[in-house]
Amino acid sequence: MATPNQSSSDEAKAISETLITELPVDEDIHLLNGFWYPTWVIHGLLALQQHFKPHPNDVLLASYPKSGTTWLKALLFSIVNRATYNVDDMMHPLLNSNPHELVPWLETYASTNRTNPRPPQSFLFHTHLAYSSLPEQIRSSSCRIVYVFRDPKDVFVSFWHFLNKLRPKDSSPISLQEAFNQFSRGASTYGPYWDHVTSYYKASIQFPNKVFFVRYEDLKTKAVFHVKKLAEFVGCPFSEEEENEGVVQKITDLCSFEKLSNLEVNKNGSLLIGKLPTGSTVSVINNAFFRKGEIGDSKNHLSEEMREILDQITDDKFNEVGLTTFVPLVKTD
Ligand code: A3P
């Protein structure tokens, strides 16, 4: 006989499978309310909508893939847990675990734990879902959201490298042009990139105490300043004593690209991401999350025409919502 949990799980599965078959499809991603999500993400989203209970102290890190998620996971984890894990501690979790292990990815967790989609023992989570796709109970809760975004040219190049790195050895690589066409027309996983950014930007204007915007490029150039702002926003400001002891700088150093990318766990470890609907597991090698960590590497890969196309879309889309202050800074060349 089915338990209440089993029956609601079966119901969720039935709803999502019906829904998914009705969604517009482009290869293996589906268009749901304006965003392209893989099937398993939609399963996770439905589970979150039905069963996720936010806590007022929750902090949600949100990002479009390849915008600096790994970095922000490390920073936020160090900031909110610094009373438990001293940044000087030789056993600090970041020294032995990839940041993605320490900050659960909500929709992935939910896709495999559909009736109980809240990852245990954590108030810090991550999502790649657009703001308008977040379950209503998260949007209406008092939990805080940190959104990191990055120059779309660098995001695209980083994503293209990442996808090719993860492709099975016997498959041919995705060409730059093919990936570019998908990204620029918005049909890339979690895309359109521009609508993703503006969904959070609009929310940050409407709810400034709920949604905090931070830009990868700003963090790179003024890390200590922005780390302090992050800590204030998530309700864990640094005390004067901590500032005098250099804690902000130490956290910034611990989470730097140079430090994290050279740790054994990130050079040779791997991360279990989840299970496919077929039951097989998906793992990612940790070093795939660390490539160059620079501003403007896209100019080494994209033609001038490609860069102009992306800059033009960025200008148009960001101007529409008044994100003008960011436009000149988005152009790095
Ligand atoms: P590049 O491919 O341009 O090097 P995400 O974490 O969202 O998947 O984004 C990955 C990008 O962030 C990659 O960019 C990666 O190298 C960079 N990155 C990872 N850790 C970083 C860190 N600690 N500081 C700065 N950039 C980092």
Notes on the structure:
- The strands form 3 sheets. The chain has a 4-stranded parallel beta sheet, sandwiched between helices.
- α1 packs across α2, α2 crosses α6 (106-112) and α12 packs across α14.
- The termini are far apart.
- The protein is built from 18 helices and 9 strands.
- The chain is of the alpha/beta class.
- It has helices at 4-22, 39-51, 69-80, 93-96, 99-102, 106-112, 136-139, 152-166, 176-184, 193-206, 216-221, 223-233, 240-244, 247-254, 257-261, 264-268, 304-320, 327-330, and strands at 25-26, 29-32, 35-38, 59-63, 124-127, 144-149, 211-215, 270-275, 281-285.
- The model is unreliable at 1-15 and 327-333 (pLDDT under 50).
- Helices cover 49% and strands 12% of the residues.
- It has one domain (7-319): P-loop containing nucleotide triphosphate hydrolases (Rossmann fold).
- The longest helix is centred in the N-terminal third of the chain and has 19 residues, at 4-22.
- It is globular and about 55 Å long.
- The site of adenosine-3'-5'-diphosphate (A3P) has 21 residues, from α3, α8 and α15.
Question: Characteristics of this structure?
Answer:
single chain, alpha/beta, 49% helix, 12% strand, three-stranded antiparallel beta sheet, four-stranded parallel beta sheet, binds adenosine-3'-5'-diphosphate, Rossmann fold, disordered N terminus, 333 residues, disordered C terminus
